[in-house]
Amino acid sequence: MNFDLGIAYTRKPEIKDLESIYQYRNDSEVYNMLGGFSHGISRLDVKAWIEGSNNRENDHIWALADKKTDVCIGHLGLYKIDYRIGKAELGLAISREYWGKGIGLKSTENMLSYGFNELRLNRIETFNLMSNKKIISLKNKLGFKTEGTLREFQYRGGHHQDVVIMAILKKEYASQNSE
User: What are the Cα distances from residue 75, in Å, to 9, 29, 33, 158?
Assistant: First the structure.
């Protein structure tokens, strides 16, 4: 499934993406905004992640690539998919140089459509650092509801931070997209 995101598009991660993923995943401004990732990832770890990304039964992962250069500028996915109960966790990481260009909004919209319509999920959830106000605002705009807070759940920027649990249900997504 490939999505057009304006200045970017989605495709499967490839070995040629190793260096760009390594760079943005080790950018402190990027990883300090992410709830699920840690810093200090090695090139060997990135290579293993890329090689495994297309073979994971319970993860659907895409690279975000610049349309002009085909350089990987981020990735997104539905992770920990549980088909039995119809839920998945949404994850998104974008290189700092591409923040504020609408890629996060467009890619998340497309991923919600894919998850609910193609995979027939009932629930898509996300875990966001409380300090990441931009991503929480984006998720609110898309109809995610805050369900709770995991206190001091992640260690970022030299201290423990709270993580906000947010989710959107298929019926909520359907009602806001039928208007």
Answer: 10, 16, 14, 25
Number of domains in the chain: 1
Token pair for 19:
């260096």
Query: Is residue 113 in a domain?
Result: yes
Supply the range of the domain harboring residue 72. 8-177
Residue 167 lies inside a defined structural domain of this protein: yes
1, part of any domain? no
User: What span, in angstroms and rounded, lies between the C-alpha atoms of 40 and 22?
Assistant: 9
Q: For residue 109, give the CATH number of its domain.
A: 3.40.630.30
Cβ count within 10 A of residue 149:
12
pTM for this prediction: 0.91
Find tokens 């970017």 and name the residue: 8
pLDDT tens for 32-85 read 677 665 566 899 999 998 998 888 889 999 999 999 999 999 999 999 999 999
* Interatomic CA distance for residues 91 and 84, integer angstroms: 20
Residues 6 or more apart in contact with residue 48 via CB below 8 angstroms:
none
